[in-house]
Amino acid sequence: MIDSITLLGLVGGTLTTVSFVPQVVKTWRSRSAKDVSLWMFLILSLGIVIWIIYGFLIDSFPVIAANIVSFILVFAILMLKIVFR
Amino acid sequence: MIDSITLLGLVGGTLTTVSFVPQVVKTWRSRSAKDVSLWMFLILSLGIVIWIIYGFLIDSFPVIAANIVSFILVFAILMLKIVFR
């Protein structure tokens, strides 16, 4: 059974991860990313990679899982930013 | 002394936190947030609050510290998005 602390971590992780979906959808639809900061998503991608490693080291499943999915979405926004400017 | 795992967590936390600064600066300067997703920053704010609580429960200083500073910056972007549209 999953304990309640891990469950809370998974809720937090799900929210912060899911939050990137509306930005992916918005940028994909509008074909415009002028107001989106390139540096934000560059630095965020790098930071998330380090969080994944940290998650493995402290053995926190919520930290690992949330950051792997977040990385995919943040990297998608970064690519859309580079393509659409 | 701080251990190397905590140090790595702090590096990850510093990067993901600092990443929001360029978006704050960009939106403040351009007075435009058209391409920034309101839903992204709304959901992200809520998720970060839950991460802060989770950080206290697993006693992870990097999770607590990074998310408190991130919340301030993400909330600032949210306010700028609401003001400048």
Structural commentary:
The structure is a homodimer of 85-residue chains. Chain A has a single domain, classed as Monooxygenase, CATH 1.20.1280.290. Chain A has 85 residues and is mainly alpha-helical. The mean pLDDT of chain A is 94. Chain A starts with a helix and ends with a helix. In chain A, helix 1 (4-18) packs parallel to helix 4 and helix 2 packs parallel to helix 4 (61-84). Chain A is elongated, with a radius of gyration of 14 Å. Chain A is built from 4 helices and no strands. Helix content of chain A is 82%, strand content 0%. At the A-B interface, helix 1, helix 2 and helix 3 of A face helix 1, helix 2 and helix 3 of B.
Structural class of chain A: mainly alpha
Helix percentage of chain A: over 70%
Total domain modules of chain A: 1
By oligomeric state, this entry counts as: homodimer
The third-level CATH topology of chain A is Monooxygenase
CATH architecture classification name of chain A: Up-down Bundle
